[in-house]
Amino acid sequence: TICMERLTAPSGYKGLQPTVRPELVGKLSRCGHIYHIYCLVAMYNNGNKDGSLQCPTCKTIYGVKTGTQPPGKMEYHLIPHSLPGHPDCKTIRIIYSIPPGIQGPEHPNPGKSFSARGFPRHCYLPDSEKGRKVLKLLLVAWDRRLIFAIGTSSTTGESDTVIWNEVHHKTEFGSNLTGHGYPDANYLDNVLAELAAQGISEDSTAQEKD
């Protein structure tokens, strides 16, 4: 899956110690998928080098996945209004604040400045049992630097700017004109699935505390 060579042939990647043969393969312990050792090392070296590895076939995460989100602040509070589709509860408002700055070694262009458009960004969750669960996991995602990244904006085309990173948020409060608001019956389940794909679930957070 990584180098597109057969497992019976040597890996398409080079550069390991000569003591490791390029045809050697390894099996991932939890999901059982098999890859060339060379390929796994190359995949790790091309990533964040954060101590985690994600199976390219089934997305099982080994270790704790962290991102490259620049420094900032995440706050939240309750507001006494309900969201469309959630008439029986109040609303959680999350406020993300990230200032512009200089890119670090983990970013696309180290030493170059980056912009941070549209901050502070306000996002909304229903104050329901499932909404509070999403909030708890978003706090973990923030701590692991997975909510935002530095890259090229899909809406403006601007490069070296702070962008959302694969965990969708609802930024519209009273309606759903843009698709970024409520009602959206599937949103909470979808965002839980997106968080799980980043290695963040109630199971994983419980394991960290143990």
Automatic annotation (TrEMBL):
Principal place of residence: cytoplasm
RING-type domain sequence ranges: 2-59
SUPFAM superfamilies the UniProt entry points to: RING/U-box
One Pfam family from the record: DTC
GO molecular function, one term: ubiquitin protein ligase activity
UniProt cross-references to PROSITE patterns, sorted A to Z: ZF_RING_2
Presence of keyword Transferase: yes
Reactions accelerated catalytically: S-ubiquitinyl-[E2 ubiquitin-conjugating enzyme]-L-cysteine + [acceptor protein]-L-lysine = [E2 ubiquitin-conjugating enzyme]-L-cysteine + N(6)-ubiquitinyl-[acceptor protein]-L-lysine
Annotated keywords: Cytoplasm, Metal-binding, Notch signaling pathway, Repeat, Transferase, Zinc, Zinc-finger
GO annotation, biological process: Notch signaling pathway; protein ubiquitination
Keyword Iron-sulfur: no
Location within or outside the cell: Cytoplasm
GO cellular component assignments: cytoplasm
Pathway in which this enzyme or protein is active: Protein modification; protein ubiquitination
Enzyme Commission numbers on file: 2.3.2.27
Family of the protein in this entry: Belongs to the Deltex family.
Name assigned to this protein: E3 ubiquitin-protein ligase
Gene: DTX4
